[in-house]
């Protein structure tokens, strides 16, 4: 049995792979590869696609998943910290672009409905491209990154009413007021249903599903929710995309939203590729080359228009000049939702075919140059700020900068230099208690429903999700963590986690708990820095109690334990640890540690004396690296530095020597 669409899928995805591999070397987003693959495979080039309608159906599924994921990520609680940028900044940018575009289009002779619709199209930017590039550059939490995120979120929200308003612009309804009223009632009813589902139905269903610990059932439930709500909205005359968006909002308010996103993303990436490919097939190459000059002039005009509106918006938000330039170099392009909306407008007859072709060309070109302008934005901004400008203008910009300092300090909490704790069992909960007592910032990841519920009852910062998946690791900011502890008993899952984590960070220290000795070597090879086997620790604990019964002095027992641990359990096994990366071998100093030691006891030999007088280096063979005193860090340590009671000493030396010093200074 021959399936025509199967041949088309193989051709267009195979072509996409070749193009994206080439683009990856040039650091160009994959979206552009899909667009070009569609252009090449489309009817205006090599006409490689025979099942155009079926490909468009696949692209519709991609849009459903795209809006579903956006709905999941738009948690209302998480957006509260940047609500001013979202609503004021987004409203100014979208409204200003629509107003200016409508005025220019109507002035050159286009109908009013077409002019307004073009304003809709050009007001939207590319969420997929901009956020991906900002994330890769680590600029999401910067002022211009926050501005971009807030405005793009507003655009993603406003595209829904734009799609609903499009039929009104097409004049397909005889009574506009009654149509708006009916539409408002439908939306209100759907919102009530969404609230009921989000508040009462979804949590219970997902709670039952999660307790089964069946991943297939969890994924199936997510997909049914997505398509079920989308189908529901379509039956009352609203769009599938709106329903998918509402379905995402339902899940976003649950505790399982991060894991839902991780499970849906692969589906979204596959199906959304068909959307961009189908868009590429629509570009008429004959029209493009015949009107090349006009297209490039229009591209320049659209870029300048959007940059002007973004600049005015950011200035009104009272951000400094540098942030203004960086923001306008991020949001100048036409976005993927504009492509979706343009298809609706073309079907409704709002825009004629020639304007539609101009729009497609503008969209593809502005998307294509986005990566290059974003990467060059800091350098261009620096040149512009150094350029000679009138004194009055420079003084005004400086005043804006002074008054906006408070605006740049966002209240949204960003995890940084923190502890990531994977697993909230007995070991995990104890580590969390210790971290909380020591005031170490931490976040917990757990996919076990019982452990997750316990962490919530304990009011712990916990994420429900599978730590083998990159999406969950991103939510925990593993790339910015100092220490990552894997405190689970699943050896296979631990191996997958180590591989995934090391793709994000090579600097974080990973400490792994293993059940058996045979798992140590594999964990070290995959990236663990330290491995704590239960077999060894149990043996140490038992032997410690045995030594106590034989009245061996406590200090000697402790020294014996330190020797075993500092030599990586070499006394108990012939296996020897090696660093996870050959490039870090010079950092693996045997029998030496960097530890912190609290000066609790007022020892007259050390406390109140300089480092030289106390003889720490000569007598105890320990080096003081830094001192934490009264919320300040002393990093320039000299022989004349005085040690005071209450100091927190950062020491480097042999564990036995540090332990000896600890006995003198602690209670």
From TrEMBL:
Residues 416-533 form the RCK N-terminal domain. Residues 582-667 form the RCK C-terminal domain. Its main location: membrane. It is a multi-pass membrane protein. The keyword Transmembrane helix applies. Pfam families: Na_H_Exchanger, TrkA_C, TrkA_N. GO terms for molecular function: antiporter activity; monoatomic cation transmembrane transporter activity. One of its GO terms (cellular component) is membrane. It is found in: Membrane. Keywords: Ion transport, Membrane, Potassium, Potassium transport, Transmembrane, Transmembrane helix, Transport. Belongs to the monovalent cation:proton antiporter 2 (CPA2) transporter (TC 2.A.37) family. This is Cation:proton antiporter. It comes from Christiangramia lutea.
């Amino acid at each position: 049995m021959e399936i025509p669409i199967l041949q088309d899928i193989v051709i267009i995805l195979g072509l996409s792979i070749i193009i994206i591999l080439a683009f990856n070397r040039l650091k160009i987003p994959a979206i552009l590869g899909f667009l070009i693959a569609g252009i090449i495979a489309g009817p205006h080039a090599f006409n490689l696609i025979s099942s155009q309608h079926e490909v468009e159906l696949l692209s519709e599924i991609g849009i459903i998943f795209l809006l579903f994921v956006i709905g999941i990520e738009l948690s209302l609680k998480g957006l509260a910290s940047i609500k001013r940028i979202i609503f004021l900044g987004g409203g100014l940018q979208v409204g200003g672009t629509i107003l200016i575009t409508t005025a220019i289009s109507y002035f050159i002779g286009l109908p009013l409905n077409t002019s307004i619709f073009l304003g809709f199209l050009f007001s939207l930017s590319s969420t997929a491209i901009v956020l991906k590039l900002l994330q890769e550059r680590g600029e999401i939490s910067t002022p211009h990154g926050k501005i971009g995120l807030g405005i793009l979120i507003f655009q993603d929200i406003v595209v829904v009413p734009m799609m609903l308003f499009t039929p009104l612009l097409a004049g397909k309804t005889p009574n506009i007021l009654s149509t708006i009223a009916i539409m408002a009632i439908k939306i209100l009813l759907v919102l009530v249903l969404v609230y009921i589902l989000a508040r009462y139905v979804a949590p219970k269903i997902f709670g039952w599903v999660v307790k089964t610990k069946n991943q297939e059932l969890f994924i199936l439930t997510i997909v049914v929710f997505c398509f079920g709500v989308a189908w529901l909205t379509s039956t009352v005359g609203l769009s599938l995309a709106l329903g998918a968006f509402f379905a995402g909002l339902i899940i976003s308010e649950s505790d399982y939203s991060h894991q839902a996103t991780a499970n849906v993303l692969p589906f979204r990436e596959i199906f959304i590729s068909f959307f961009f490919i189908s868009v590429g097939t629509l570009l008429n190459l004959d029209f493009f080359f015949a009107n090349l000059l006009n297209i490039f002039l229009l591209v320049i005009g659209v870029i300048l228009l959007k940059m002007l509106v973004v600049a005015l918006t950011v200035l009104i938000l009272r951000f400094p000049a540098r942030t203004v330039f960086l923001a306008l170099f991020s949001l100048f392009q036409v976005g993927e939702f504009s492509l979706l909306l343009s298809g609706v407008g073309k079907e409704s007859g709002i825009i004629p075919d020639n304007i539609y072709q101009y729009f497609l060309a503008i969209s593809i070109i502005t998307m294509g140059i986005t990566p290059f302008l974003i990467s060059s934005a800091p350098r261009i901004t620096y040149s512009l700020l150094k350029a000679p400008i009138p004194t009055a203008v420079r003084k005004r910009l400086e005043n804006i900068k002074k008054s906006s300092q408070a605006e740049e300090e966002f209240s949204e909490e960003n995890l940084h230099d923190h502890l990531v704790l994977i697993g909230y069992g007995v070991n995990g909960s104890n580590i969390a208690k210790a971290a909380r007592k020591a005031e170490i910032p931490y976040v917990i990841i757990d996919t076990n429903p019982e452990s997750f519920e316990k962490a919530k009852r304990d009011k712990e910062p916990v994420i429900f999700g599978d730590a083998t998946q990159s999406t969950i690791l991103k939510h925990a900011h593993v790339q910015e963590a100092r220490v990552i502890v894997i405190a689970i008993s699943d050896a296979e899952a631990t191996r997958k986690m180590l591989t995934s984590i090391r793709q994000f960070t090579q600097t974080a220290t990973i400490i792994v708990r293993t059940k058996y000795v045979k798992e140590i070597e594999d964990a070290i090879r995959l990236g663990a820095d330290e491995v704590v086997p239960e077999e060894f620790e149990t043996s140490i604990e038992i032997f410690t109690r045995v030594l106590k019964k034989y009245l061996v002095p406590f200090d000697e027992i402790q020294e014996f334990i330190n020797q075993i641990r500092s030599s990586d359990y070499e006394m108990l096994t012939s296996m020897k640890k090696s660093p996870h990366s050959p490039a870090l071998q010079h950092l693996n100093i045997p029998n030496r540690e960097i530890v912190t030691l609290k000066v609790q006891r007022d020892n007259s030999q050390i406390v109140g004396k300089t480092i030289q007088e106390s003889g720490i280096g000569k007598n105890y063979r320990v080096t003081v690296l830094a001192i934490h005193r009264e919320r300040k860090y002393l990093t320039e340590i000299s022989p004349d530095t005085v040690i005071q009671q209450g100091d927190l000493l950062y020491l480097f030396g042999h564990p036995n020597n540090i332990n000896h010093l600890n006995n003198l200074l602690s209670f």
